[in-house]
Amino acid sequence: MRTHPSPAIRTATPADQQTVSDLLAEAFLHGDLADWLIPHLDTRARIYPHYFALHVEHALTYGHIDMTADATAVAIWYAIDGEPLPELPDYTQRLAEVTGRFQPRFAALDQVMHDHHPYDQPHHYLAFLAVHPDQQRHGLGSTLLQNHHTRLDATRTAAHLEATGPRNRRLYVRHGYRAQPMFHLSAGGPPLHPMRRPRVGAQAFR
């Protein structure tokens, strides 16, 4: 069987902000939460690049972004140790300007994820794992996970994320994540599935 070489992975820089924002927008355009956030596809396609640009700006400031050298896959991580991360200056206003009448849904997403996050348990948080739609099912997401997990295991650090559907839950289970009690974005809204990967030698966050 012919195997493909593992793609080169590098750390994103501010020069990559537009590229990473566009990649996230394309990867999540039809994602599990997309219809709930913005029901209309054309409107979503217009808003998403600007929405994800806020997240990329935040990650470049406070987190860490791994990306494949050909910019077809990206992972955004944050080191969490005891307290929430700072917001971008004027984030609430900027989010409202970007998302318009859909702002309440995006604000609700931010709030419920904040309310359920285990800030008191040191870990790395996987905020986004995205692969370009044309390159999905080729192992790029697994490659990015394995790359970061090597660092986590070397420092005996746990990991946490929220899966949004069965497909990505299965991916994360294969990489050692364990399901936690799910929660919903709102009454009747879509579920989120917290998952955690214990640090090496531990059975849970310690």
Offer a few descriptive terms:
206 residues, alpha+beta, Aminopeptidase, 8-stranded mixed beta sheet, 7 helices, 8 strands, globular, acyltransferase activity, transferring groups other than amino-acyl groups, Trichothecene_AcTrans, Acyl_CoA_acyltransferase, transferase, GNAT_dom
Question: What would you say this structure looks like, in words?
Answer:
With 206 residues, the protein is an alpha+beta fold. The protein has one domain: Gcn5-related N-acetyltransferase (GNAT) (Aminopeptidase), CATH 3.40.630. The protein is built from seven helices and eight strands, in the order E-H-H-H-E-E-H-H-E-H-E-H-E-E-E. It has helices spanning 17-28, 34-37, 41-62, 91-99, 103-115, 140-154, 166-174, and strands at 9-11, 64-68, 73-80, 123-131, 159-163, 178-179, 183-184, 191-197. Strands 1, 2, 3, 4, 5, 6, 7 and 8 form an eight-stranded mixed β-sheet that branches. Strand 2 and strand 3 (73-80) form a beta hairpin. The chain is globular. The relative contact order is 0.15. Residues 184-206 are annotated as: Disordered. InterPro entries: Acyl_CoA_acyltransferase, GNAT_dom, Trichothecene_AcTrans.
Shape: globular
Order of helices and strands: EHHHEEHHEHEHEEE
Main sheet attributes: strand count, strand direction, barrel closure: 8 strands, mixed
The parts where pLDDT drops under 50 for at least 5 residues are: none
* Count of helical stretches: 7
CATH architecture: 3-Layer(aba) Sandwich
CATH topology name: Aminopeptidase
Which structural category do the helix and sheet elements fall into? Answer: alpha+beta
Radius of gyration, CA atoms, in whole angstroms: 17 Å
Q: Tell me, what is the CATH class? A: Alpha Beta
Number of DSSP-assigned strands = 8
Count of discrete structural domains: 1
Roughly what is the average pLDDT, rounded to an integer?
92
GO molecular function: acyltransferase activity, transferring groups other than amino-acyl groups
Protein name: Acetyltransferase (GNAT) domain-containing protein
Pfam family, one: Acetyltransf_7
Keywords: Transferase
